[in-house]
Design a protein that fits this description.
Distance between the termini: 55 Å
Number of strands: 15
Largest sheet: 7 strands, antiparallel
Oligomer: single chain
Helix content: 10-25%
Mean pLDDT: 80
Order of helices and strands: HEEHEEEEEEEEEEHEEHEH
Length: 254
């Protein structure tokens, strides 16, 4: 019987160091690594994209009728209204990144790791003709006391995010892929591995049962579907984004 995908995971300082080292090594050598469980690069030909930020003084662009002036005006109003009653987290760090490469940046909010030890929370704020779109808050890092363990990446030019994590139940890896559509961040795909009762974490990838969008697949099919879902794009870690404070982001939006 399939168990539900568990995203609340075991954590220890040693595992955190291992997870981050593995993700960093995968990004440096994308073309030779096939594992999909640390959101590594899968394309040798992908551009070596660095964190892309965008100021409001760029030339106006159109995206489905939206202008940069309108979108950035909406972002500025949101930031000026912080903190809002509905926000569970205190957003203190900000940046603009054009996730889908359409000429109009999305607004990234961060709590700068101040809410829970070991974790950082992010929100990708979108915008459409109706105004601001508040999206699901995502987390990255290692929670204290056996909490969540995962990393958050964006895939430059695709409008997609990748969230690999480890299960607290059995230590097996999973992948969540999100896609930005009309300002809304939607879950586009999910993959995970199950192992039998009593099996060890080390047996996950070799002997575990692989699932993609809840359909059983082979290990090779899993890797292929992951590459397709991420468009074979080199990931960029949210941890490496150079965030700025409230005054600085408001200046960028003028």
């Amino acid at each position: 019987m399939k168990k539900a995908l568990v995203l609340i995971s075991i954590a220890s300082l040693a595992l955190l160091v291992g997870c981050r080292k593995e993700a960093t090594a995968a990004n440096d050598d994308a073309s030779t690594q096939d594992s999909t469980f640390t959101a590594e690069s899968t394309s040798e030909d992908s551009s070596d994209a660095s964190t892309s930020t965008d100021g409001a003084d760029d030339s106006a662009t159109q995206d489905q009728g939206l202008t940069k002036e309108f979108v950035y005006g909406e972002y500025a109003k949101l930031i000026s209204s912080l903190p809002r009653e509905q926000d569970e987290y205190e957003w203190t760090a900000f940046q603009l990144i054009d996730l889908d490469d359409n000429g109009i940046s999305e607004l990234i909010l961060s709590d700068a790791g101040e809410t829970n030890p070991g974790l950082t929370y992010y929100e990708v704020v979108g915008c459409n003709e109706s105004g601001i779109v508040d999206n699901e808050v995502l987390q990255a890092g290692v929670g204290s006391g056996g909490g969540f363990r995962g990393e958050l990446y964006y895939l430059p030019g695709t409008g997609k995010l990748s969230l690999p994590s480890l299960s607290a139940y059995d230590g097996c890896p999973s992948d969540l892929i999100y896609e930005l559509k009309d300002g809304k961040l939607e879950q586009a795909a999910t993959g995970y591995i199950e192992i039998g009762e009593g099996d060890s974490q080390e047996e996950c990838e070799e002997n575990g049962t692989h699932y993609w969008n809840d359909e059983e697949v082979t290990a090779d099919e899993y890797k292929t579907k992951f590459k397709e879902a991420t468009e074979n794009t080199k990931p960029e870690d949210f941890e490496n984004i150079e965030f700025v404070d409230k005054d600085a982001i408001l200046g960028m939006l003028k």
